[in-house]
Amino acid sequence: MSAQVQRSERKPLYVKVVTQPALHGCWSVNISETGIGLIATPRRPSEGPHENEPVELSFSLPDTGAYVRVHGTVRWRHDTAGGAGTVAALGVSFGAFDAADGVKLARYLSTSHLQVVAAYASDDESRAVRQALDGVASPHFAASAEDVHALLSRGDMAALLVCGQDEAQALALVESLAALRAEVDPTGAGPPSDLAPRIVYCAPAAPERLVALFNTGRIYRALGAWPDPEVLCEAVLQAGREHGFRTEQWRMALELERNLLRERALAQAPVGGPGRTAEDVGFRSPAMQRVMEMVRLVAPHRVAVLLQGETGTGKEVLARILHRLSGRGDLPLVVQDCGALTETLLESELFGHVKGAFTGAVSDHPGLFVLANGGTIFLDEIENTTPNLQAKLLRVLETGDVRPVGGTQVRHVDVRVVAASNRDLGEEVRTGRFRADLFYRLNSFTIDIPPLRERPEDIPELARAFVEQFNRTLKRSATGVAPDADEVMNGYGWPGNVRELRNVVERAVLLSRPGEMLTRRLLPPALLNSAVPRTDPAGDGSLRARLQLVERELIREALERHGGVLRRAAVALGMDPVTLGRRARRHGLWNPE
């Protein structure tokens, strides 16, 4: 299963992008399956997301009607002050897509071609343009200046052919477009004009006028009326290449400048990081340390991996770490939940289908294995697949050959398969619910992920990582996890595992006041009612130890009942406030600051 794999290709895309946090006048300038380049005109430098911050994007794909929503991370941002105000350029890497939006984008990128507008072309000229560009580009015809602007606003046109025999009309269009070729539109209503489509002039005009237009950058080429088809085709191809080159050159110049500024800042900044996520946690439990050792061991080798564990233990997180460490990290990672679709839909989604294969198959669909070529495919809940589909998965694993539904042609792919199951697949084989041959093919390297209740040492570290994560994403300032909340979380069984812990911390961070530690007051009632306090493993069950536990619980209840006001709690307990403060600090229940 070896194949020559290319990196995800950047393509020009000039469409309006809506961001959250909001960024005024935001347009995309290029896109790939893994990220997008943006340019915007923020009203103030602090507006919108900054480096290493999460961002939500919404934009349309030209000529398809598809709308894409994706969550990503700002990898770099560069702000430049100019005469028209501040201009911000951003590079965003994609994370999670809404529903099947990632597949929509991949299909658009794999099927999109060079797009060209032909303005004012007569019927004969239209036929000549179609013949000249057949198999090279997709022409779109405009009969008026309004039609031209509407087509250009789609965002994917690489060239504009100005045709027709009306010299005044053709020159007026060129001049009107020149008004949009300022470096940046200060209103934020359009994309950077330096990246606008190249104009190939195919209408009559005086030679001296054409020279002036060329010298001022208003037109890219002047071919005269009724150009030779080969000359026209070559001009469009050159315009497309120049278009892509200028886009990439512009992007690289901004990124280079941004990297230089970042290096200078790092040289002066103290050692530290922007914060952790669950993927960056250093697990303390021996069980998870062994799991991570196995992940690091198997990641560089092209073998199928089977992840087994209860729901919520973090199988997809481990699959992403495997992909990142595999040497395929800059190529696609495709995720499919095998329990979310019927057998027919899942087969079509994984292997693709040809046009007419079934009702509703109005076009060819390459399938997820083809879209993941060179990268990794993660098949979650693989135990939910049918025996028929399991046989087809086995063939792909053994040969690398994928045949779409209803098709006869086979495509060879190089895909690393990571599968996951909530059940013991060995037991599923013994009961006849899972094919033994597929199990043994997947079972070449199995990693069993222990539930969270069997590794309580990881709970505090995970909780603090989630606090940092949600402080960033929710714009909160929680200062950590208090000992009383730690005690409750350590005593809970966590049937939902890490996913449940993540949700509990997210809720607590949302409920917290600015600068507040997360105390048991912020935990869900179900957690408080179900948690069983763990005894101190160093304790001996003596009367002194038991009295300390009772004292701690009484002080905690009094502080909660009186909103954390120490003096009121002391009156309720009949104690001196100073004495209560000293004991509350000893139990980790009160911080005078």
From TrEMBL:
Keywords: ATP-binding, DNA-binding, Nucleotide-binding, Transcription, Transcription regulation. SUPFAM superfamilies: Homeodomain-like, P-loop containing nucleoside triphosphate hydrolases. One of its GO terms (biological process) is regulation of DNA-templated transcription. The keyword ATP-binding applies. Transmembrane segments: none annotated. Residues 281-510 form the Sigma-54 factor interaction domain. GO terms for molecular function: ATP binding; cyclic-di-GMP binding; sequence-specific DNA binding. It comes from the Bacteria. Pfam families: AAA_lid_14, HTH_8, PilZ, Sigma54_activat. InterPro entries: AAA+_ATPase, AAA_lid_NorR, Homeodomain-like_sf, HTH_Fis, P-loop_NTPase, PilZ_domain, Sigma_54_int, Sigma_54_int_dom_ATP-bd_1. This is AAA family ATPase. It comes from Corallococcus terminator.
